[in-house]
Amino acid sequence: MKTFKKLIVTILVAVVVFGVNIPPVMASNRPVITSNLAIEKLKMEDSGPDLTKGRLISETLGTEPDGTPYIERVYEHINITHFLLNSSNEVTRTTTKSYGATGTVEVTATFKFNTLAKKVYVKSSSGRLINGAGYSQFVDLGTSTSGEGTKKATAKYSCKINRNLGGWATYSASVSCNYKGK
Predict the structure, then answer these.
(1) Phi/psi of residue 43, each to 5°?
(2) Does residue 164 belong to any structural domain of this protein?
(3) 18 lies in some domain
(4) Which run of H or of E encompasses 40?
(5) Residue 161 forms beta bridges with which residues?
(6) What is the separation, in whole angstroms, between the first and last Cα of the chain?
(7) Cα angle, residue 146 at apex, residues 96 and 110 outer, rounded to 5°
(8) Domain extent at residue 48
(9) Whole-number Å distance between alpha carbons of 71 and 40
(10) pLDDT of 70-101, one tens digit each?
(11) What is the phi/psi pair of residue 86, to 5°?
(12) What's the pTM value of the predicted model, to 2 decimals?
């Protein structure tokens, strides 16, 4: 018993005096990637903006609550002919959220806005998961709209996927427009 106590005391002294790093206990054997490292990896894999969707108006790097990194881009397409001929204006916006190998969630909506009435409506909306490969099951939760007839309207697409290495996750993308067309 005395030799065991001496061994424990010797180990503790070595840890304190020499600063020996003891690795923390891991919950699983899978490698843990920090979110900064994952974002950098995603940026390296990313092909950049898809200008066929319209003019790029914003690009954001972020992480989902579960730590999954994404690149979100918002594109805008204005039909000039319709803009010049009508007092009520229309704009089509597309938001994409790229998750790398898991795929990209995309929502597109056409908004009809009236600056005089200070109201905006969702004329049409659609959403999808594209280029997905890193999952085994997919559930399409559909597209929803909110705020129609108010100063700001939103279209949102959601889907639920069973990732090959991470279990189930719900991903969504939304796009908005206010009564000024912004």
Answers:
(1) -65, -35
(2) yes
(3) no
(4) helix 35-45
(5) 138, 169
(6) 75
(7) 55
(8) 34-178
(9) 11
(10) 999 999 987 666 666 665 588 999 999 998 87
(11) -125, 145
(12) 0.73
